[in-house]
Amino acid sequence: DAKTTQPTSMDCAEGRAANLPCNHSTISGNEYVYWYRQIHSQGPQYIIHGLKNNETNEMASLIITEDRKSSTLILPHATLRDTAVYYCIVAGTGANSKLTFGKGITLSVRP
Amino acid sequence: DGGITQSPKYLFRKEGQNVTLSCEQNLNHDAMYWYRQDPGQGLRLIYYSQIVNDFQKGDIAEGYSVSREKKESFPLTVTSAQKNPTAFYLCATRIEDRTDTQYFGPGTRLTVL
After folding, report:
1. How far, CA to CA in Å, does A52 sit from each of A10, A24, B23?
2. A65 in contact with B at a CB cutoff of 8 Å?
3. B33-79 pLDDT tens trace
C-alpha cells in the first residue's frame, strides 16, 4: 500500500542539478511530502518537507505540483557525496504520524 | 545521528538467543522509534514510543519487545521468536516542532549465525 512511487535509479553529473521525481496521487489534504536520504550503511537523514508550497533550505528545493499529486526534489549542484538512496514519503504530522519508507530512488553522481 | 547513539554497531548472535539493542538519545525528544531494514529494501517500523512508559506496535512487531523506562533510552530486544532477525536496525527520535522531523541513529547490524 505504498503511497509514493519513485523511479528505481538515476544518475547525474557532478555540479549539475539533480531532479528527483515522486508521484503521490492519493495524498490527502493534511499529509505532507517528506524527503530523506540514506548513504550506504548509515541512518537516513532528513532533507526537506512541504505541504503545498514550494520549499527551499540549505540542502535542497522541493517543488510540489498544484494538485499535489507529484513533487520533485532538486539538488541544485550535486556532488559525489550526494550519492545515496532518496526516499519520498507522504505522512501526516503530530503524535501519531508514521513514516513509511519504500525502496526509494538510488541517485548516483558521476565525476 | 549526532545525539543518538546505538550500540553495538555490529552484533552477532547464535540462533535461538535473545539479544538487546541499545538506543540512547540526549536530544530531549519525547518520541522514539525502531525500524528494521533488509538489504535493498526500505525501512519497516517495529515499535514506537510517544512518551515514557508507553509504546505501540508498528507494522512488524512480532518477535520483538521494547521498554521505555526513561526518556533517554528505548532498548529493543530481538527474541528467539523472530524468524528472520538478521537485518540492519535503526533507532530514531522525533522532534515536535513544525517539521516533525525524525532523526536517526547510526544503526546496528545484527547477524544471526
Report:
1. 25, 13, 35
2. no
3. 999 999 888 899 999 999 999 999 999 999 999 999 999 999 999 99
Q: Which of B75, B65, B83, B62 is nearest to B108 (CA)?
A: B75
- A100 interfaces chain B, CB cutoff of 8 Å: yes
Name the DSSP class of A80: G
Please give the distance of CA A94 from its chain centroid, rounded to a whole number: 20
**A33: pLDDT strictly greater than 90:** yes
The cell for A44 is: 537516513
Nearest CB to B1 within list A43, A49, A94: A43
Say whether A41 and B88 touch across the interface (CB within 8 A). Answer: yes
Using CA atoms, how far apart are residues B48 and B68, in angstroms rounded to an integer? Answer: 10
Q: What per-residue confidence (pLDDT) applies to B98?
A: 67
Distance CA A42, CA B107 (A): 7
